[in-house]
Design brief:
The protein is of the alpha/beta class and 337 residues long. The protein folds into two domains: 151 residues, no CATH class; 177 residues, no CATH class. The strands form three sheets. Strands 3-2-6-7 form a four-stranded parallel beta sheet, with helices on both faces. It has a two-stranded parallel sheet with strand order 1-8. Strand 6, helix 4 and strand 7 form a beta-alpha-beta unit. Helix 3 packs parallel to helix 4.
């Protein structure tokens, strides 16, 4: 089987809480531009900002709202309410607003969503901004996103170069595999060959168990079994990796590159080099670019995006990508251990 990265050319649509894209739609008429740190890479995606509260008709500025009597799932089932600071029940309005936002994401064919934790609507693991309290997660819209099995990215992670790189590579793999036609065991096995090294990094036990499971499958795999395996893999791709695992995977893949090409890449440091997260992110971007150019399988980032318009421009590619790497990392984070 040919060892080669999957290249996709269509931009992925990512939904995002509008307040995280700079829109001043929070209750206090404020917002944050969480995407500013992405630089030119922001152009690699389509963005679909939504705000459940404003779509609910609550306006800006407005009284803060909170979950009362349970979490967002219980609101959806009618067991809990949403009230504002003055005690007014705004459950019906917020449910309509959340439903409208979800319909918008579906029309946009959004694969992922960048959410701001701490919100009673968009929050997934927190619905309170108080330091010692998580609130009643998930929020109402957060519960809908979980039900739709969206690829969910916390907004604060977008500002970290290493965390964003991890989310991006897993999102690309998730998007590709979710829509990949699987008709038989051979299709499944070929797809797993592309994804298994990334899955091993994220959860080695799961990956090895699934490898044995695939080997034992009959030639004609039942549709329900195929769906179950696809769901398991997608759930694994949603899980973040760690800096330690990512660094180990980088060196392992770099070693494979050196063995295959018989040459080194200037800018990739030895395993004992004391790296910080900014340096690691720069090495990962450099290795992605180099592996793509040299047509060497970079297994830790198996699915990559490339704009079709840039593909033939090989002579200008190096300088352009060098600039892109610097712009991606510039000003993202201070040097940290």
């Amino acid at each position: 089987m040919e060892k080669k990265n999957v290249v996709i050319h269509d931009k992925i649509t990512i939904g995002i809480s509008a307040c995280c894209m700079g829109s001043p739609v929070r209750y206090n008429n404020k917002g944050w531009d969480m995407l500013a740190t992405l630089g030119r890479e922001k152009q690699d995606f389509m963005w679909c900002p939504v705000c459940p509260e404003t779509m609910s008709g609550l306006g800006v500025p407005r009284d803060p709202i909170h979950l009362s009597g349970g979490d967002g799932l219980m609101v959806l089932s009618g067991e809990a309410k949403i009230k504002n600071r003055r005690g007014r029940d705004v459950t019906e309005e917020v449910l309509l607003g959340c439903g409208s936002c979800m319909e918008t994401l579906k029309r946009a064919n959004a694969t992922a969503y960048i959410y701001m934790d701490g919100s009673p609507t968009c929050g997934v693991y927190r619905t309170s901004l108080k330091k010692q309290k998580r609130g009643n997660p998930p929020g109402i819209f957060g519960a809908m996103l979980l039900d739709e099995e969206m690829f969910l990215i916390p907004a604060t992670d977008v500002q970290s170069p290493i965390k964003w790189w991890d989310w991006r590579r897993r999102l690309l793999a998730f998007h590709w595999f979710r829509s990949l036609p699987l008709e038989n065991k051979d299709d499944l096995y070929k797809a797993w060959y592309v994804l298994k090294f990334l899955c091993q990094e994220i959860d080695d036990t799961f990956a090895r168990d699934l490898g044995r499971k695939l080997a034992d499958l009959p030639k004609n795999v039942e549709e329900d079994t195929m769906k179950s395996i696809r769901k398991e893999i997608l759930e694994t791709l949603r899980k973040p990796s760690t800096v330690k695992k990512i660094t180990h995977s980088l060196w392992k893949n770099y070693s494979y590159y050196r063995k295959t090409k018989g040459q080194e890449v200037e800018g990739i440091n030895s395993p004992d080099f004391r790296r910080n997260v900014t340096t690691i992110a720069k090495e990962l971007l450099l290795m992605e670019r180099t592996a793509f150019e040299e047509e060497v399988f970079f297994a830790t980032s198996p699915v990559i995006y490339r704009d079709k318009r840039r593909m033939p421009k090989v002579e200008a590619y190096d300088a352009e990508m060098d600039e892109e790497i610097e712009n991606t990392l510039k000003g993202i984070l201070p040097e940290e251990e």
